[in-house]
Amino acid sequence: MKRRSVLAAGVGLGSAVFAEPAVAWAAPVPRLSAGDIAAGRRLFTAGSYRRLGEVLPRLLAAAGHSAEQGPAGAAQAARVWVLASQLAVKHDRVKAAGSYAQQAGRAARRSGDPVVLAAAARAAATPLRRTGRAEEALHLLDEARTHLTTSGQVTAAGLEAAGMAALTASYTAAHAHQAPLARELAAQAEEIAHHLAGHPHTEAGHPPELTADQCALYRIGIFRHLGDIDTALATARRLRPAQLPTAERRARAATDTARALLDAGDITGAFTQLRLVELAAPLEARRPSVRTLTGRVAELRPGLPGLSSYAQRTGASPL
Description:
Blueprint: H1 34-45, H2 49-66, H3 70-90, H4 94-111, H5 114-130, H6 134-150, H7 156-175, H8 179-197, H9 212-225, H10 229-238, H11 247-263, H12 267-280, H13 288-300, H14 307-314
């Protein structure tokens, strides 16, 4: 029987984002296409996590089959598992995120594609970091960057992937309070971003991921974790959120700025940034970690105008 594409096969799959299929597929395994993966990625970057959660189980089922279809199929499967890991992080499901990242890593190695391997390493870094395994995350990211920069002629896509891996490694090093390493890696990423800015390489409909503004966004969190709140806030003031390529990134910029402002004691400013999170991507404001942030603002300044209705809309703890 002819296989159908994942999205053409339908997405009425209930609300369980990460559930494995309970029974064997009666229908033919849907074909995993690059277009379907790109569509899923667009849902993620737009902050459409609920819709992505409906599509994802079909993508995962197809990924399991695709992973056995040679290097190209393994690369496609790895991209799906990376996406699943990133969505799990959004829902604070660290164990699921780690499991999907492991699957992505295995498939990426089978694919032999260093760009895909770097994406898998970046996905793995978050659950490793959150479970106290920052050194392991740094090792994976360093390995990925080595593959990218020593595998023959380095392409623009490979350079961008190396820069993004360096940013992720810098943020991870900051979590581990390794200030010199964090600063060095951030500087490397910025150097690559500057180089790429002079050599446009993006495909139609695919904005560059590694930019000066992306580097600035990461630096907010990097300096905050290093305890340098003044530099984090100075970086936030220079950031141009409108220049960030996606709603998810703009929401992340506002979230990280809110955290830095809260650390500095500027409760009103932190709430202003939380409003920007909701404006950029409403479901970002409902993420567990952001609801916790809203709850902290409410504890400190419960009478802020608009805070009560914001907390109710986003599902934060009652004031």
